[in-house]
């Protein structure tokens, strides 16, 4: 029952698609040059996936795409709110758009995404960025065509940032960016309310897409030649809990694995509290599931973990890693960590360093805590100065760089089946590829190999990447 309420009625989505068709017909009628759209995305893969839907809707409205905002009839900036730095970058870039708008007063400037769902950000745009025409949060994304139509017809400004638990819009068109890689959202929102994090406030509550629709999307992607599918959600391990059916994330993974074809399945993000033995066994048994897990631990000290409301201890985290490694010994492990959480002392921070040494992650995403308005942590008192936090951050980065370099060095001399996924500007190595575990391997070879698998021998390594030579190609 709940699921029905969360699904936006089919006819409402159809009405938006119809608006797209009307807008496209109007361009054609005017016999104008094809209008262009510039879409810029900040933040995580979830936002990338949302931008693929924005592009899908824009294409259906008749827009082509450009990388030059001064050429664009419509500029769309999909924002992130996770740290202050992300918000500041957006504001800087939006400020710069006053110039393009002055040259082209007809230009429509849209801001959307997580930062726009924060009341103080939307208010700031309303007051100080008067050249912005349209502001909407993630909950209103599916109504983008009606906003564009209104502005094309009547100009004026639109702000659609109403708070919501969130719904699911199925059937929106997408224009994918990834070549051989594709994102598939399996759920939206988050229920965890880690005390530092803005995501639950701007993305609403957890809601899972119907398994049959996810499977159909994956089947189509495989048929279209995509080789690397990443299942997305803020916490994929709670997939299905809201559906009221007997199916969890591990079951979904197994069903995606059963789709015939030569492709890899990745997923992110996993919350350690919900990463179960069942999931680990499923990963070990499903041959298409990449031997990789991104399992953010955030802090290595139990008091800090509790203050963060993470709901696991360092010991529980380590025991999960141990179970996983006993099943998949060569698993590639990555994680996120926050330095300088309010109240974290340097002694407590050193537990994070110890955890790093115990687990030895292949790579780590390291963040300095950034207070987010409206979250509980923003009101917690700090004990360290900015300089002390920076020093701790530096120690963390140095330790991880050393571990990453050692882990990468261990690849040298070994052979891997890699997926060649792009061209690089590097003069010595013109191709990029990924090991099944997701490590970047620079290779040399014909650009026509992009999209193919190859067997590569690793010849060299650095802190950030591997370098190799192609032994044999599998031309598809
Ligand atoms: N849902 C994912 C993470 C989403 S945000 C998860 O739970 O793992 C990505 C990462 O940003 C988080 O893992 C965390 O390390 C970091 N992050 C989130 N809020 C932050 C804040 N206020 N300051 C600094 N880093 C933050
Ligand atoms: Fe944020 Fe925690 Fe939810 Fe991840 S699980 S999105 S860190 S609240
Ligand atoms: Fe940023 Fe929103 Fe993702 S806050 S990290 S874009 S969910």
Explain how this protein is built.
By secondary structure, the protein is of the alpha/beta class. The protein has 14 helices and 19 strands. A six-stranded parallel β-sheet has the order 2-1-3-4-5-6, with helices on both faces. Helix 3 links the parallel strand 1 and strand 2. The radius of gyration is 23 Å and the shape is globular. The mean pLDDT is 96. The chain binds S-adenosyl-L-homocysteine (SAH), iron/sulfur cluster and FE3-S4 cluster. FE3-S4 cluster is lined by residues 43-44, 46-47, 80-82, 114, 198-199, 202-203.
Bound ligands, named by name, code or SMILES: S-adenosyl-L-homocysteine, iron/sulfur cluster, FE3-S4 cluster
With helices defined by DSSP (H or I, 4 residues minimum), what is the helix count? 14
Please report which band the strand proportion falls in: under 5%, 5-15%, 15-25%, 25-35%, 35-45% or over 45%: 15-25%
Oligomer: single chain
Computed structural class: alpha/beta
Between the first and last Cα atoms, what is the distance in angstroms?
45 Å
Order of strands, widest sheet: 2-1-3-4-5-6
Question: Percent range for helical residues?
Answer: 25-40%
Q: What's the pLDDT, averaged over the residues?
A: 96
Shape: globular
Could you tell me the radius of gyration in angstroms?
Answer: 23 Å
Q: Main beta sheet, described?
A: 6 strands, parallel
Question: How many E-type strands?
Answer: 19
- Uncertain ranges: none
In short:
The chain is built from 14 helices and 19 strands.
Task: Indicate the topology.
Elements: H1 2-6, H2 10-30, E1 36-41, H3 45-60, E2 64-65, E3 74-79, H4 84-103, E4 108-113, H5 119-128, E5 134-136, H6 144-154, E6 158-160, E7 181-185, E8 187-188, H7 199-203, E9 207-208, H8 211-223, E10 228-232, H9 249-257, E11 264-268, H10 277-285, E12 292-294, H11 302-307, H12 314-327, E13 332-339, H13 346-359, E14 363-368, H14 386-409, E15 415-423, E16 431-434, E17 440-443, E18 453-461, E19 466-474
Parallel strand pairs: 1-2, 1-3, 3-4, 4-5, 5-6, 7-10, 10-11, 12-13, 13-14, 17-19
Antiparallel strand pairs: 8-9, 15-16, 15-18, 16-17, 18-19
Helix pairs in contact: 2-6, 9-10, 10-12, 13-14
């Amino acid at each position: 029952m709940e699921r029905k309420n969360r699904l936006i009625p089919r006819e409402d989505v159809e009405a938006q698609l119809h608006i797209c068709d009307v807008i496209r017909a109007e361009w054609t009628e005017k016999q104008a040059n094809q209008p262009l759209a510039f879409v810029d995305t900040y933040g995580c893969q979830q936002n990338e996936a949302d931008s693929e839907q924005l592009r899908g809707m824009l294409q259906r409205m008749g827009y082509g795409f450009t990388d030059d905002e001064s050429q664009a009839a419509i500029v769309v900036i999909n924002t992130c709110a996770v740290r202050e730095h992300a918000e500041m970058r957006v504001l800087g870039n939006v400020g710069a758009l006053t110039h393009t708008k002055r040259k082209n007063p007809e230009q429509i400037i849209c801001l959307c995404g997580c930062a726009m769902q924060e009341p103080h950000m939307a208010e700031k745009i309303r007051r100080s960025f008067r050249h912005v025409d349209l502001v909407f949060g993630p909950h209103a994304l599916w109504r983008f065509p009606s906003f564009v139509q209104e502005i094309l017809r009547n100009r004026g400004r639109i702000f659609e940032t109403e708070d919501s638990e969130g719904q699911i819009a199925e059937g929106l068109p997408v224009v994918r960016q990834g070549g051989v890689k594709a994102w598939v959202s399996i759920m939206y929102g988050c229920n965890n309310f880690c005390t530092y994090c803005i995501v639950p406030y701007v993305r609403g509550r957890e809601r899972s897409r119907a398994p049959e629709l996810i499977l159909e999307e994956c089947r189509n992607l495989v048929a279209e030649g995509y080789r690397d599918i990443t299942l997305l959600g803020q916490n994929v391990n709670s997939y299905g809990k809201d559906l009221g059916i007997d199916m969890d994330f591990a079951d979904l993974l197994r069903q995606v694995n059963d789709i015939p074809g030569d492709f890899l399945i990745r997923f992110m993000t996993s919350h350690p509290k919900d990463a179960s033995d069942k999931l680990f066994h499923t990963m070990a048994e499903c041959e298409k599931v990449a031997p990789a897990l991104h399992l953010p631990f955030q802090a290595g000290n139990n008091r800090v973990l509790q203050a963060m409301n993470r709901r696991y201890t360092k010991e529980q985290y380590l025991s999960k890693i141990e179970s996983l490694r006993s099943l998949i010994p060569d698993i590639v492990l990555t994680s996120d960590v926050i330095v300088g959480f309010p109240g974290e002392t340097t002694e407590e921070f050193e537990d994070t360093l110890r955890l790093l040494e115990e687990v030895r992650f292949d790579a780590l995403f390291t963040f300095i805590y950034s207070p987010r308005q409206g979250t509980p942590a923003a009101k917690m008192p700090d004990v360290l100065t900015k300089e002390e936090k920076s020093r701790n951050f530096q120690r963390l980065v140095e330790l991880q760089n050393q571990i990453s370099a050692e882990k990468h060095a261990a690849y040298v001399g070994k052979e891997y089946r890699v997926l060649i996924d792009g061209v690089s500007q590097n003069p010595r190595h013109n191709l990029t590829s990924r090991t099944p575990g997701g490590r970047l391997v620079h290779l040399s070879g014909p650009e026509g190999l992009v999209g193919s698998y190859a067997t590569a021998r690793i010849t060299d390594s650095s802190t950030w990447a591997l370098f190799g030579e192609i032994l044999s190609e599998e031309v598809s």
